[in-house]
Amino acid sequence: MMKDNIDTKVGVDAMETKFNCRDVQVYYADNHAIKDVNVDILDKTVTAFIGPSGCGKSTFLRSLNRMNDTIPICRVEGDILLDGEDINDAKVDPVQLRAKVGMVFQKPNPFPKSIYDNIAYGPRIHGLARNKAELDEIVEKSLRRGAIWDEVKDRLDAPGTGLSGGQQQRLCIARAVATEPEVLLMDEPCSALDPIATAQVEELIDELKANYSVVIVTHSMQQAARVSQKTAFFHLGNLVEYDDTNEIFTNPRDQRTESYITGRIG
Amino acid sequence: MMSDQHIASAFDRDLEACQALVMKMGGLVEEAIRASGKALKSRDVEEAEQVRRGDKQIDELEEMINTQCATLLALRQPAARDLRTVLSVMKIGGNLERIGDYAKNIAKRTEVLAQMQPIEGTSSAIRRMTKEVESMLSDALDAYIRRDATAANEVRHRDLEIDQMYNALFREFLTFMMEDPRNITACMHLHFIAKNIERMGDHVTSIADQVIYLATGEMPEESRPKSNTEIYQMDGGDGSDEADE
Amino acid sequence: MTDATVQGGAPAPRGSIHSIDARTAKRNRAEKRFRTYGKIAIGIGLFFLVVLFASIIRSGAPAFTRTVVDVPFTLTQTQYEEAEGTLFKTKAYSDFFIAALDNQLREQGVEAEFDADTIERLLGKVGSTIREYYRANENQLGEEVSFSLATSSRVDGYLTGRVTRESMTDSRFLMAADLDLVDRLVEGEIITSEFNWPFITGADSGVDNPGGAGIGASVVGSFFMMLVVLFLSLPIGVAASIYLEEFAVQNRFTDLIEVNISNLAAVPSIVFGILGLAVFIQFMHLPQSAPLVGGLVLTLMTLPTIIISTRASLKAVPPSIREAALGIGASKMQTVFHHVLPLAMPGILTGTIIGLAQALGETAPLLLIGMVGFVARGYPDGFLQGFVEPNSAMPAQIYTWAARADVAFYDKAWGGIIILLIFLMIMNIVAVVLRRRFERRW
């Protein structure tokens, strides 16, 4: 047991840092939602954010691709560096940032368009394809990466909203992948799915980690334990503990983490 | 900050039930050690027979602990301290079961020894050993209940005394056997008994290790003082090679 | 919280579920009562609707029929030249007609005494009608032509029972004695009823000729006004709503704008009328009575409705769609135009059509900007002139007719209402069809 621990630690640390967050604060009007968060999110790694409702994990996730910009009363302070560049710099266009840091949401939210158009939309607006053939190629590649190609290849013109919940969520992941992001943020991607669909999405996340840095917010501690290599525990806006997932789940350092993951009141 | 109770109180009940079984098992095993030592000293075949019969109950308890732990793992997916509790309960259960087996083995050999000429002075030395192991086990289980890593560590160090007692007895048996070959059968039995007690000590040490793991989340480093191994040259064994680590 | 235990222990047994207990029965009765109230309410509504429609149709139907006198008539070349040679040319034609009618009656075996004045009271200026016909169609001389001459609206009224000998006082329009001739004509099957196309296609007539009044010109007026309203209020309203809903920062100023839009929707239409009069006509000197001005005023009135309904349908688009688009790097504008607007489209269109329908039925502001003008000239000369030439609008026309002293215009007013309702219904059906068409599920 201890030996394994040491091995993964070395393996994870060898990865390079994707997001470098220093003293991040997020305010909703007067409400201090995220306090002094320092965290390094690694490339080619699945990082899970866990914590009770309202602990700020989703808020922090949304500040990684500046989705909080859409909320007028929300204010982010501190440094969030993506590959060493401050994402909150005045020079950064959030649209460009979001092409690099894709996002998948809690509820599967395909556009009410065809499956093909759902995937093709991102590449179209970002000008990733010069002609129809290239676009077709991107669509197929993305659907394959989303592990849904075999299920939908015969009905690309069917509406994306007609798929089952799990398929819709994988379609949304495929759509996020289609814009060739480097980081994938997932906000409780399985909370609306049944166990089989959840397992399929989890399997997909595991495959995605070979190419992407994946950050997943989840309410299910089991899910965090299953899919992630690194786990961050948030509580009342603080990042209480950030460590290798197996450390967090077998031997957490902080009493609050322990209370939370063992189902006591924290 | 930390609350001791789960939000799901049934989880607490299940965990407590498992640990209660371990404590019950611990009580039975302590009694078995004590009774087997006493029977050996007093050459009481009747009491030895009782110890042999009592082992069945210990085995059944271990079975129950395993089943309950498996159920708990499947239904509650414990994490962190709860996970360590369940794992340690299973391991301690296994250790106790082995100690019970050794006690039974002592009782068996006691029945054989009762037919033979007693060997002067050795039985009281063995009795001292059993008492020491019994008290170590009792302390280890106390430490378990209190999640007391310090107390558990003390127990681990006391295993050294057991080893030393065993080594002393070993030399004594050699002397007896060299003096008079007719003593060989009895001395061989007594040696196995001493060896069994020494192994009991190792299992108690393993229980103490589990207590430390449970309390701190980490298995203790192998810093436990070992008695020198020179004297084992003849049987080539290490006193703790079968301990669970 | 953790030491919360179930209070009060196990519940008391509730008894058999096969027998309904008093509480349940009471609740069921209450529910039944409520359903009954609902049915009664709907029943009352339907009853009044039926009454309304029945009375509208009953009162309006006469406007769609007219009675005509059918007289076969032959004019020879000699008679034509002779008539053209006299001093009172129309008098001559009138005499020819009287002779023909007399002849016709005699053939049917009906005896009747009448003179030229009676004919004029019953059928209007017959002579000039005939003269104009032959002057335009000289090749018809010598051929037999059947003239369908519309009778005066009082004759319609007499035949439908609205006018009786008792209710009629002798006037310059019609005398009790004239009705004898009507009776004779009916007897001789010379008076017949036919569908009143001139009512649908024609322009308004003078106050003394209710029979000749038509709503066609004001339909055209309304149409041009609606064009103005549609092409101004839809783009302005939708643009304003999108900006307010999606782009504007929330502050005191935008709050103020929002409150004012809601208030504007509640401002009485007459206020918009007087505003239109002051701004468009007195200040900007746009032509009076023109559909352009009417359309501008109605646009002001419709804008709040369209903005409110558009904002509501923009709000109804689930935020998940916006997040999805933003999440894959669409800009705010791309998000709105590619995803939010298409989803809000059915709501926007429905709101717009409802706004247009409201505007179509609006009367008060039109009165103030003079869109009640008597349009003797009928239809506009061309498409563009349609916007600026004086015209009337359907509701204003209906108001004008209803306000005229002559009761014969009452039929016309009711008939106009039927036409107006048909237009409103068509617009509502279009709204429903569009909504069905554009509606997408998400």
Can you give a write-up of this model?
The complex is a heterotrimer of chains A (266), B (245) and C (442). Chain A is an alpha/beta fold and 266 residues long. Chain A is 39% helix and 25% strand. In chain A, helix 4 packs across helix 5 (132-145), helix 5 packs across helix 7 (165-178) and helix 7 runs parallel beside helix 8. Mean pLDDT of chain A is 87; it is low at 1-13. By secondary structure, chain B is mainly α. Helix content of chain B is 77%, strand content 0%. Chain B has helices spanning 9-42, 45-76, 80-113, 122-146, 149-179, 184-216. In chain B, helix 4 runs antiparallel to helix 5. Mean pLDDT of chain B is 87; it is low at 233-245. By secondary structure, chain C is mainly α. Helix content of chain C is 64%, strand content 5%. Chain C contains 18 helices and 3 strands. Chain C has helices at 22-60, 77-85, 89-107, 116-123, 126-136, 153-160, 178-187, 197-201, 216-247, 252-266, 269-283, 291-316, 319-327, 332-360, 364-368, 385-388, 394-403, 408-438, and strands spanning 65-74, 144-150, 191-195. In chain C, strands 2-1-3 form a 3-stranded antiparallel beta sheet. Chain A binds chain B through residues 1-2, 221-222, 225, 249-252, 255-259, 261-266, and chain B through 1-8, 11, 77-84, 217-219.
Can you lay out the helices and strands and say which pair or pack?
The complex is a heterotrimer of chains A (266), B (245) and C (442).
Chain A: H1 2-13, E1 17-28, E2 31-42, E3 46-50, H2 57-63, E4 74-82, E5 85-86, H3 94-100, E6 101-104, H4 115-126, H5 132-145, H6 149-152, H7 165-178, E7 183-187, H8 195-208, E8 213-217, H9 221-227, E9 230-235, E10 238-244, H10 245-250, H11 255-261
Parallel strand pairs in A: 3-8, 3-9, 6-7, 7-8
Antiparallel strand pairs in A: 1-2, 1-4, 4-5, 9-10
Helix pairs in contact in A: 4-5, 4-7, 5-7, 7-8
Chain B: H1 9-42, H2 45-76, H3 80-113, H4 122-146, H5 149-179, H6 184-216
Helix pairs in contact in B: 1-2, 1-3, 1-4, 2-3, 3-6, 4-5, 4-6, 5-6
Chain C: H1 22-60, E1 65-74, H2 77-85, H3 89-107, H4 116-123, H5 126-136, E2 144-150, H6 153-160, H7 178-187, E3 191-195, H8 197-201, H9 216-247, H10 252-266, H11 269-283, H12 291-316, H13 319-327, H14 332-360, H15 364-368, H16 385-388, H17 394-403, H18 408-438
Antiparallel strand pairs in C: 1-2, 1-3
Helix pairs in contact in C: 1-18, 3-5, 9-12, 9-14, 10-12, 11-12, 12-14, 13-14, 14-18, 17-18
